[in-house]
């Protein structure tokens, strides 16, 4: 009640003051001063505001990548199969079964950047998209290594889904004059088609576990020269061209899924990204059969008559080339602004 009376008094005073000033023809500058003194209204603001809003800064691609943990997943092209040495101490638990090697690109990337929450390296040789989610050799699934603290995830995946090892073996062991290599076309195309749905499942699961992370998917290199001229490991020039084409189709299938997923993230203004690194031409001039190849050729243990798992996997130079591609992608980003922000409270 008292507050209501005070309002009435103030309003009456303001009306009376206005009439008096109008009749007295006082200068206009006097009214605000009197209003401030009598009514506590229209007084000038002095000093700093009583409070400030938080400062919001958009992060760069590198800042996003380094803000948490780097998790390296994937198949043999990520684990380091081509340089794995059974005599070396395992890099972590289960590394001996998964053939994880310090010579892979993941440890090289980890040494290039300082990640706020460290690095986790769990790529496993032979992994398919399904095994990425379900596990191998009795180990926890690779996907479980990813959580909300992850800021960067790298992986190569899909080659085993397409049955590339079996396809390559079928090409190598065929009779020289047979068409057994290219006769695998229909089966390969079917498997690559099925891969796309599984690849989308992997990306969705990564997104659920690490919604702010950058996910970088590495493609596969062309194994043979673009225009082969000689037979290599019982593979004719025609066989080599066909295997190159299979690699291209595999890469295109993975790239299309990754690109579509990132467009969806961007359309909703979401944090994080899904990025594809095209490695198809990465080993140009250093393919199998060249003087300094970045891929191991066929390696057969003549005593045991077995094919060494290093066959047709990157050499040390090949993994260093992969590391260059990944580090460049980390710097360049997805080709669009990142929607990750840092908030500074005053």
From TrEMBL:
Keywords assigned by UniProt?
Disulfide bond, Hydrolase
Q: Which cysteines are joined by disulfide bonds?
A: 98-124, 171-181
Highest taxon in the source lineage: Bacteria
Domain SGNH hydrolase-type esterase intervals: 72-321
Active site, UniProt feature:
76, 313
Taken from the record, one Pfam family name reads Lipase_GDSL_2
Q: What is this protein called?
A: SGNH/GDSL hydrolase family protein
Q: What is the species listed in this Swiss-Prot or TrEMBL entry?
A: Nonomuraea aridisoli
